[in-house]
Amino acid sequence: MIDQDFKELDTQAPDHGLDGLEADVWKGIASRNRERATARRLVSLQALLVLFVLIGSAAVGVTVATPAQASRPTLMPGTELMPSSLLLRGHP
Questions:
Q1: Contact 85, 91 (CB under 8 A)
Q2: What is the pTM of this model?
Q3: Measured at the alpha carbon of residue 87, what is the angle toward residues 78 and 85, in degrees to the nearest 5?
Q4: What is the CA 82 to chain-centroid distance, rounded?
Q5: Would residue 88 count as lying in a domain?
Q6: 34 found inside a domain
Q7: Is residue 72 part of a domain?
Q8: Mapping DSSP to helix (H, G, I), strand (E, B) and coil, where does residue 36 land?
Q9: Chain-centre distance of CA 74, in angstroms?
Q10: DSSP E strands: which ranges in the chain?
Q11: What is the tally of structural domains in the chain?
Q12: Is residue 44 part of a domain?
């Protein structure tokens, strides 16, 4: 059945010219190569931009960061190590 279809197709003339087929194939290949090259350049630029942003963020973070302040007593100096009166057994 399929063999008969192939024989019929073989006897018929093509419905369109094949003269420009090879040129169209090469145009398609060239177009895809240009698209790939453009995509590679774009990805490289994006990676470079991300690198600059990371370096800039780190530089700003180091510049803006303030040193940690020493802990300050909340009520009175020297009371931070005193036990709470509620922990004692004889509390009122």
A1: yes
A2: 0.48
A3: 50
A4: 53
A5: no
A6: yes
A7: no
A8: helix
A9: 46
A10: none
A11: 1
A12: yes
Token pair recorded at residue 66: 């303030």
pLDDT digits (tens, 9 = 90+) for 19-62: 888 899 999 999 999 999 999 999 999 999 999 999 999 999 88
What domain range includes position 33? 22-58
Tell me the C-alpha to C-alpha distance, in Å, between residue 80 and each of 38, 73, 74, 87: 65, 7, 8, 15
Q: Which pair of structure tokens corresponds to residue 7? A: 């024989």
The values of phi and psi at residue 17, to 5°, are -75, 140
**Token pair 């774009």 is at which residue?**
42
3-state helix, strand, coil in the chain (%, to 5): 60, 0, 40
- Flag whether pLDDT at 92 surpasses 60: no
Confirm if 58 and 65 have CB atoms less than 8 A apart: no
- Residue 38, both tokens: 């453009």
3 state SS of 79: coil
The encoded tokens of residue 71 equal: 């802990």
- Which amino acid is residue 7, in one-letter code? K
